[in-house]
Amino acid sequence: MILQIKNLNINYEVRNGWVSAVQNVNLSIKENETVGLVGESGCGKSTLGKSLLKILPKNARIDGEILFKGENIAPYNERQMRKIRGKNISMIFQDPMTSLNPIMKVKDLFLETIKAHYPKIPEDEAFKMSAKILEEVGIDPVRMNEYSFQFSGGMRQRVMIALSLVLKPDLVIADEPTTSLDVIVQAQIMEVLKKLKDEHNMSMILITHDLGVVAELADRIGVMYAGHLVELSTAEKIYYEPKHPYTQALLKSIPNTNIDDRELRYIPGDLPNLVKPPKGCRFANRCPYATEKCHNEVPPDFEVDGTRVKCWLYEKVKA
Ligand SMILES: Nc1ncnc2c1ncn2[C@@H]1O[C@H](COP(=O)(O)OP(=O)(O)OP(=O)(O)O)[C@@H](O)[C@H]1O
């Protein structure tokens, strides 16, 4: 196992209390495995992703264990985390425009990243490493002399990917890597990620609100709702045998261009207030099958048919 997340709870302190952004999440990721984390905006996907690198804002409190290659990094301080970030675990952000320093040439961005971990590396060797990975993401290394603002959105995201992978991390967290791009460029970037993931033998957590985006890439998919990981299974099972009523609703909400099913495209109701989260299942107020028990008790994780599902409907179903 490259990563084991155990009983992870993340709360943000706000003026009127604490936002329960992630509650009791358990998730393991194997070597060379890609796990997609999906769910609508505000469900806690980014909070979970950022907690693995400890880049959460100051008002966040993390409880639980984050075992990276068996070692609990949850209590690590900033100095210890700096040794891991980029080299062992790295992150591809949503918007490369804000995450790539525009006043630095691309080659200096690489140099800075590489030198942070290998301060004595000769510059020509660092440039060789950078050129190789840039080629792999489809960018002519000559462009290292340019500034990131001189690149198109898709090309900038390729630079970002190359920068995240130059030190060959074991685990990459890609947080909505294609959201700001148009559909064609999105597909190209997903292709690049797919190719690199296989060639570099890395594990990946792919965070997205779009179930369609993870289809090609993810071995397993975790569905999040209001801070809970409500379903976890292989990509096939999530698509063809979704168990949790929220996953079912999410699948129906994927726009289908063949049929006019507009009424299926959204899930009625809102995410609950996470400062005062519901007592029971967090999806109960939007769930067509909710019973009194659902409103009153948080369901445990049930194992059904190789799928993990957090829903009382499966209480009596044999695994
Ligand atoms: N700095 C913060 N302070 C207080 N609450 C926060 C903070 N950041 C996020 N939250 C809250 O935590 C919850 C989870 O947010 P998070 O950004 O992780 O969700 P998400 O699924 O990644 O959504 P998005 O795709 O919109 O980023 C939300 O209720 C959000 O309002």
TrEMBL record:
Any single GO BP term: peptide transport
Asked if Signal is a keyword of the record, the answer is no
Topology with respect to the bilayer:
Peripheral membrane protein
- Primary location recorded for the protein, binned into one broad class: membrane
Q: Any idea where this protein resides?
A: Cell membrane
Specify the domain of life of the species encoding this protein.
Answer: Bacteria
Please give the family membership noted in the entry. Answer: Belongs to the ABC transporter superfamily.
Q: Under which name does UniProt file this protein? A: Oligopeptide/dipeptide ABC transporter, ATP-binding protein
Q: What organism does the UniProt record list as the source?
A: Marinitoga piezophila (strain DSM 14283 / JCM 11233 / KA3)
